[in-house]
Amino acid sequence: MKLNKQTLPQTGKQAALPAYDSAALLPGIVHLGLGAFHRAHQAVYTDTVLAQGDLRWGIVGVSLRSAETRDALAPQDHLYTLAIRGTEGEQLRVIGSLVDSLVAPESPAAVLAAMRHPHCHVVSLTVTEKGYCHDPASNTLRFDHPDIVHDLAHADAPRSAVGFIVRALDQRRDAGLPPFTVLSCDNLPSNGNTSRALVLAFAERVDADLSKWISLHGAFPNSMVDRIVPKTTEEDRVAIAARLGVDDAWPVVTEPFSQWVIEDRFAGPRPAWETAGATLVEQAEPYEHAKLRMLNGSHSSLAYLGSLAGFITVDQAIRDDDLRGFLERMMTQEIAPTLQRPGLDEYRDELVARFRNPALKHRLQQIAMDGSQKLPQRLLGTIRARLDAGLPCARLCFAVAGWMRYLRGQDEAGLAYPVSDPLAESLQAAARIADVDACVDALLAMEAVFGNDLAKRVEFVAAVKTCLRDIEEQGVLKALQEIGV
Ligand code: CS2
Predict the structure, then answer these.
(1) Domain range 286-483, CATH architecture
(2) With pLDDT > 70 as the criterion, what percentage of the chain qualifies?
(3) Class of the 8-283 domain?
(4) Could you give the C-alpha distances from 188 to 125, 192, 321, 418, 451, in angstroms and in order?
(5) Residue nearest to atom 8 of ligand 1 (CA)
(6) CATH 1.10.1040.10 residue window(s) in the chain
(7) Using a 6 Å CB cutoff, which residues line ligand 1?
(8) Model pTM?
(9) What is the interface pTM, i.e. ipTM, of the complex?
């Protein structure tokens, strides 16, 4: 038996159920990027808002690439299970906030229709870093990106998030409707400001008046999102179905912790997410920078160093005392001093405790993906801040060297793994140069990642070369002991 509206009552003993009539929901939100993260984060806050009686905020989820999520969720009336796993076991909750799911390549027109619907007030995004089609080092739109080239030539059949947003805003303007708010929920620096700049750059190429209208009337609040959501496995599906009593083809697994900090500047109405635990603020950037540098910076470092050393999951890697000590010192001594936020010691301890959660089985390879798009905001910005202040950053440099070694596609035991990154081909070609100095120089010359400044910082270049040499000669775990306390 499948999870759906008819079978829902039978799951009641094990799971919390949506406390509202889903047939009465209006399509107030269109979400681009219907992945597990959205379904374990924003869709859950929205589910709580709906349960409080404001039914304007049903979510139309859009997959920009594949049909698998729609194919799994449509037969379930878009219901799915959230499995929250912590030290006290597992809690199940069925989420009902999704009212429809669309597959953009099958029907871009249907996506545009949802976005220009008068009931739609918010278009939120979790399209991952590479989904912005931008240059991660400079945060500018890549007009040579194939999807952007395509979308400028085919306005009514866009492929990219930016292409969809600009076309839908154009259609709303023509129809005399106000713009929707664009709410980026990706781990980008100043994700709202970045989205705004990319949308305006694209709109400028389409029509200068449109770009002006968006810049005057549009809203792009910055937001900080935080919840660890590993990819759901077949094992998870089987275990959740067994507890639920019905089959759920597409459940999501997550941790108890969840945080959402949103700037309160919307173009029109918005869900009262603060009543569901979100924090509405004037400025989200301090939270966002702290999260990107502390959490995501250590996550990526652990992903590269831990994978090389042969660990599979985050909790396995963090249980290694040397790796844990390294990360703690990196956070305390090198990252925290670049941030303006109180309580960073507690934040660090909380992060380490979250990483230790054994029930999540978060695979390091999942986090290691797309390093070229992640490193600039997770590690390199912090390195620049340290260098500018004349302060040491040996551990951050060690993590960058770990990424370079990771790009070779083989761990220290010789086990091969695929390197998944939009720039994989050129990165791997450079990473495989046998001479360490030449290899580091070739990688640092990639301006999309390192900008045009870092290759000129001699102390940084020398440190990365030393670290890479040490990793090669001694292996990660021995080499990081040399950095000491
Ligand atoms: C992770 C993030 O996959 C990754 O790159 O670092 O998805 C991380 O789990 C979240 O940002 C936590 O909020």
Answers:
(1) Orthogonal Bundle (1.10)
(2) 100
(3) alpha beta
(4) 11, 9, 30, 24, 16
(5) 228
(6) 286-483
(7) 187, 226-228, 295-296, 299, 366-367, 374
(8) 0.97
(9) 0.99
